[in-house]
């Protein structure tokens, strides 16, 4: 019995990773200092592994993203080893696209495979990063992302070229593995999480072919996680040294193991402590699980984490303000390592005092529960998930009430969060700035942003979200049932971090959450101001959530709290309310067969949250463009208006709305908020013109792709000015042709 762990956070206890790299970008430290700092951080990270587990990978550390590293390892981009070149690919003008890593909120850089003229590029080992790491730390196993995952997550080639490209990759991987073996690596850690997606049979054949060859080059441990492997049995005769399986998020793996066993010539690496959620492992239950595995196979078993640990903050130890009942029930990355060592103790020596103490909380949790909230969810009936009138009837009422022009303009919600504002919030939170002063500052910003929007001539205004640090954390702080950590940061991409709240109890809204700011903004203008809320699915997707009740109940509790806010906003005269759901698509299960179940509750939760009066216009926003597969679920949300990302595809996303008759209103984003560039009116008109081929002009809104919070005022003002003038020109061009409703 051995313990193995991987994916331990690179961020560092005090977010040293972020400080170092951003310090280098800002010119505050030089390259030598950056390199030395990161080496110290990595040494500390490995030391943590050594303290708790028997084996671990080396070379996981990345300056920005492991997928980019893999592209460089394989020679996809010229790499002279200069940091500037690396960071140019990560965040320069021509940086690679960022996208979500599987169904997580980590974003990776998407490599682009050059595939001109149908010829695969020649892949070769251009940078032996795993070897460098192994030579420095020979007690770990070199880490690489495997060829299947690498190619599946890259872009720039047609689907039918997959086989050719995949085969072209294999010699480079063979070369890589050979070099590692020659350097004395006893085994290699190969990450293949893409094996848990829906893998078509012809890909299974390719995987078998590739690993039959690669397994002869070195001893490979192939890791899968986030779900089960549908073709697990077809891996059994491959020359692999071991297979890592997620036994927490991949329950079907257990069924396969029970039914088909596991080959005795391989190591079964059992992912048994959760890398995605924070609840402590029940060690006795986990031990029984391992005992069951032993019944099913005589293979050697290593126990490990299920999913990389970087989805968790570094350690619970540094938290000093959590409810003690919560503190003693949760585990972050460091505690997961400890659990593995305790589990090993339990399995080899039996129940020691330390094992006993781990699962023996002393503080009760009655105060986490609210019978009235549970009761409210239990009493929900089908009509609670529907608005009173169908869309067509509602939209007539709303149009009359709002009397907006054709191609109405609006923004997604946030306006620039400037440094002074962030400083003021920090001071306010630390008790160094009086509440009255902080609120006065927020009001001043709201006044300013309303005035600016009026001057620009926007039609539906927003209050700017200046009081919010983060769209989930803001609401989690105001709702009961959520805890906010002090130091629980995790990486979202690059050096960008966020702090997922912990949803531990029944959700209750003690008082209105957004009323003060929204009504203040509305009092300053005759134009409609949009109420701005975060939807139930996103609240849940970007938090750690309780597991003692089904996920749909968690979603409905959140939805009811949001619905109460909607009602309060309506009562206060707010005519338009936006409920953001950027995580709606990402939270979908990796396997298509589980989609209906997920979308059923996700759609219901949104409908419950947005059950407004017919005359209230409900908007939703999603910052992506892959709608082809989910369009019917989008429609089922029954929102009146949806704003989406559309600039990067120049409006081609509208394709999705072509085949499915979409009768609601839609705002294809015309302004790429991820770029500092100021878009021209012409470029924005072109996107709308593309949309008009599919969507009737009277259903089209003009808005940016996403919130403007990370942009600077100097970019935002001219961009919005151009956006408004694009809308005006569109009105001139199309106005006459549009029937007045
Ligand atoms: N209303 C939010 C904002 O404008 C939406 C952010 C998002 O979609 N991620 O910032
Ligand atoms: Zn967005």
Provide a concise account of the structure shown.
This protein is α/β, with parallel strands linked by helices and 741 residues long. 41% of the residues lie in helices and 12% in strands. Bound molecules: glutamine and zinc ion (ZN).
Q: How would you describe what is shown here?
A:
- With about 750 residues, this protein is an alpha/beta fold.
- It is about 40% helix and about 10% strand.
- Among the domains are: about 65-185, no CATH class; about 375-380 and about 390-415 and about 450-735, TIM Barrel.
- It has 26 helices and 20 strands.
- The strands form five sheets. It has an eight-stranded parallel β-sheet with strand order 1-10-9-8-7-6-5-2. A five-stranded parallel β-sheet has the order 15-17-18-19-20.
- About 50% of the residues are buried.
- It binds glutamine (GLN) and zinc ion (ZN).
């Amino acid at each position: 019995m051995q313990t193995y762990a991987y994916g331990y956070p690179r961020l560092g206890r005090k977010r040293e990773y972020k400080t170092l790299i951003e310090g280098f970008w800002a010119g505050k430290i030089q390259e030598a200092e950056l390199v030395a700092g990161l080496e110290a951080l990595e040494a500390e990270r490995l030391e943590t592994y050594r303290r708790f587990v028997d084996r671990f990978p080396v070379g996981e550390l990345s300056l920005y993203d492991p997928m980019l590293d893999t592209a460089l390892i394989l020679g996809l981009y010229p790499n002279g080893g200069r940091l500037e070149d690396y960071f140019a690919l990560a965040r320069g003008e021509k940086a690679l696209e960022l996208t979500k890593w599987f169904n997580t909120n980590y974003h990776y850089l998407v490599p682009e495979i050059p595939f001109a003229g149908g010829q695969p590029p020649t892949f070769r080992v251009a940078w032996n990063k795993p070897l460098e790491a192994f030579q420095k730390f020979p007690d770990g196993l070199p880490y690489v992302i495997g060829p299947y995952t690498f190619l599946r997550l890259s872009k720039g080639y047609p689907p039918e070229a997959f086989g050719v490209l995949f085969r072209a990759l294999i010699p480079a991987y063979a070369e890589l593995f050979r070099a590692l073996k020659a350097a004395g690596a006893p085994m290699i850690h190969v990450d293949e999480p893409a094996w848990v997606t829906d893998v078509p049979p012809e890909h299974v054949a390719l995987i078998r072919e590739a690993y039959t060859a690669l397994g002869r080059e070195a001893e490979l441990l192939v890791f899968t996680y986030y779900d089960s492997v549908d073709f697990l049995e077809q891996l059994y005769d491959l020359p692999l040294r071991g297979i890592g399986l997620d036994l927490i998020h991949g329950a079907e793996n257990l069924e396969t193991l029970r039914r088909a066993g596991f080959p005795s010539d391989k190591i079964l690496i059992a992912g048994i402590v959760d890398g995605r959620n924070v609840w402590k492992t029940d060690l006795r239950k986990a031990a029984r699980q391992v005992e069951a595995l032993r019944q099913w196979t005589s293979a050697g078993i290593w126990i490990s984490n299920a999913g990389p640990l970087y989805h968790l903050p570094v350690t619970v130890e540094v938290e000093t303000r959590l409810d003690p009942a919560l503190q003693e029930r949760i585990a972050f990355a460091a505690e997961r390592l400890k659990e593995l060592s305790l589990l090993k103790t339990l399995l080899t020596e039996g129940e020691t005092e330390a094992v006993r103490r781990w699962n023996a909380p002393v503080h009760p949790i009655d105060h986490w529960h609210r019978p009235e909230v549970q009761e409210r969810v239990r009493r929900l009936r089908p009509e609670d998930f529907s608005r009173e009138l169908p869309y067509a009837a509602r939209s007539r009422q709303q149009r009359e009430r709002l009397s907006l022009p054709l191609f109405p303009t609006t923004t997604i919600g946030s306006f620039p969060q400037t440094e002074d504002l962030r400083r003021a919030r920090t001071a306010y939170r630390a008790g160094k700035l009086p509440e009255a002063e902080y609120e006065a500052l927020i009001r001043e910003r709201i006044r300013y942003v309303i005035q600016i929007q009026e001057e620009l001539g926007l039609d539906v205004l927003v209050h700017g979200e200046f009081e919010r640090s983060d769209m989930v954390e803001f609401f989690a702080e105001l709702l009961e049932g959520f805890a906010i950590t002090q130091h629980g940061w995790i990486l979202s991409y690059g050096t960008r971090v966020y702090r997922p709240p912990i949803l531990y109890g029944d959700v209750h809204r003690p008082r209105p959450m957004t009323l003060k700011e929204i009504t203040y903004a509305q009092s300053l203008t005759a134009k409609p101001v949009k109420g701005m809320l975060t939807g139930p699915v996103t609240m849940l997707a970007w938090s750690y959530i309780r597991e003692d009740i089904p996920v749909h109940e968690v979603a409905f509790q959140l939805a009811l709290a949001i619905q109460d806010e909607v009602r309060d906003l309506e009562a206060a005269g707010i005519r338009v309310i936006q409920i953001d759901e950027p995580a709606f698509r990402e939270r979908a299960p990796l396997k298509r067969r589980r989609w209906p179940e997920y979308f059923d509750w996700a759609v219901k939760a949104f409908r419950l949250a947005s059950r407004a009066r017919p005359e209230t216009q409900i908007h939703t926003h999603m910052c992506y463009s892959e709608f082809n597969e989910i369009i019917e679920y989008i429609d089922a949300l029954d929102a009146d208006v949806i704003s989406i990302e559309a600039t990067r595809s120049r409006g081609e996303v509208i394709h999705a709305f072509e085949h499915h008759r979409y009768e609601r209103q839609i705002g294809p984003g015309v302004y790429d908020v991820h770029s500092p560039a100021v878009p021209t009116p012409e470029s924005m008109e072109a996107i709308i013109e593309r949309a008009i081929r599919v969507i009737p002009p009277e259903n089209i809104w003009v808005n940016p792709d996403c919130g403007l919070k990370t942009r600077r005022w100097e970019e935002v003002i001219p961009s919005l000015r151009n956006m408004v003038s694009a809308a005006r020109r569109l009105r001139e061009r199309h106005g006459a042709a549009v029937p007045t409703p």
